[in-house]
Structure formats: structure tokens, C-alpha cells
Design goal:
It is a single chain. The protein is α+β, with helices and mostly antiparallel strands. The chain has two domains: 103 residues, Sandwich (Jelly Rolls), CATH 2.60.120; 72 residues, Arc Repressor Mutant, subunit A (Orthogonal Bundle), CATH 1.10.10.10. It contains seven helices and seven strands, in the order βββαβαααβααββα. Strands 1, 2, 3 and 4 form a four-stranded antiparallel beta sheet that branches. The chain has a three-stranded antiparallel beta sheet with strand order 5-7-6.
């Protein structure tokens, strides 16, 4: 399991199972959720290439597992392996495409369909257990608007609030709502 933050070592991680969240610390002391990574994605590849000066905070989102590749392995073998280099290139291009697509969706769709898709993609056994301050930034909206939209989903019977966690009440209603918006 990957710890909450990178160590000083420059290891590479391959996600075998689950979802990981990538956070960035800003100079003003604030933190931003910048991306979700899933099975098959790499963590630490920018450090491997020497293009990332500051490490990101990486946390597991639910039950997950990674394969740790120590720096001496990729320095001695993987950097010379054309199959790995192609995989690395495709992985980086896919991440770039995903981030670009995320930002264009924020401009083209209202919050509700984006939130519905986010819930469908990242729920853990139906639970939506997020830091809603970070999630509102990730979805490009205000915290207040996000909470108002969550309330609307409760009123529609798609989710319900149990204690401090939101739970998908009906996956059928969730999927129908997503289809309605053609996201």
C-alpha cells in the first residue's frame, strides 16, 4: 500500500487495484485535488523522468493496491526497455488527455451531470466519502453549490445522507439521470 505521501526515494508505482487521489500543495498553503488515478496508471513517472521537482500527495481512495518498483530497477532496466518506454508514453498521454477532458467538461456541463458521473466513477460500495471542499474545487464549483446539488440528488432519491456520508440510494436512478444529461 502506498503511504499518504511520497518518500524521499524516487520509486515508481503501478496501480493494481482501486483508486488513488493526487493532491498538490500550493505556495499559499492551500491544497488542490488534481486527479483520480485507477488500475493501470503509474504514480511517480514524472519523477522518473526528472520533470517533477515537487512531489504530490497521494492517498488511497478505498481498498487499493500498488506494485512498487524501486528506482534502481527502472534506472538499470526499464529506462532501456522500449516496451516500457512505450507504456510510459501512453500512460502520460492518457493522463494528459484525462486532465484536459476533465477541464473541458467543467466548461461544457452543469454541475449536476458532472457530479453524477463523479459519484458513479468513485463511489466505494455505494458510499460517497469525500472531502467536499476539495471535491468542489475539483469539480470547479463553490462548496455551497456542491452541497445544494447534493441536496437535490437526495430529494430525487438518487442518494441519501447517513450520518456524515452520502450513500447511493438507487443505482438505477443514478444511471437514468446520467443518461438524461448525455454525459
Amino acid at each position: 500500500m502506498l503511504s499518504d505521501e511520497y518518500t524521499s526515494e524516487n520509486n515508481l508505482y503501478l496501480i493494481e487495484k482501486g483508486i488513488f487521489k493526487i493532491y498538490e500543495y500550493h505556495k499559499n498553503g492551500k491544497i488542490s485535488l488534481i486527479q483520480y488515478l485507477e488500475k493501470g496508471d503509474l504514480i511517480g513517472e514524472l519523477g522518473l523522468l526528472g520533470v517533477e521537482a515537487e512531489k504530490k500527495v497521494v492517498t488511497s481512495h478505498g481498498n487499493s493496491r500498488v506494485l512498487k518498483i524501486k528506482s534502481h530497477v527502472y534506472e538499470d532496466f526499464l529506462k532501456e526497455n522500449p516496451v516500457f518506454l512505450k507504456y510510459l508514453s501512453v500512460n502520460l498521454a492518457t493522463k494528459l488527455f484525462a486532465r484536459t477532458h476533465h477541464f473541458t467538461e467543467m466548461q461544457q456541463y452543469k454541475l449536476k451531470p458532472r457530479l453524477l458521473m463523479h459519484i458513479k466513477r468513485t463511489h466505494i460500495e455505494g458510499s460517497v466519502d469525500e472531502n467536499f471542499t476539495y471535491l468542489s474545487q475539483y469539480l470547479g464549483t463553490s462548496y455551497r453549490h456542491l452541497m445544494f446539488t447534493l441536496k437535490a440528488l437526495i430529494d430525487e432519491g438518487i442518494i441519501e445522507k447517513r450520518d456524515h456520508i452520502y450513500q447511493v440510494n438507487s443505482f438505477e436512478k443514478l444511471n437514468k439521470a446520467i443518461e438524461k444529461y448525455e454525459v
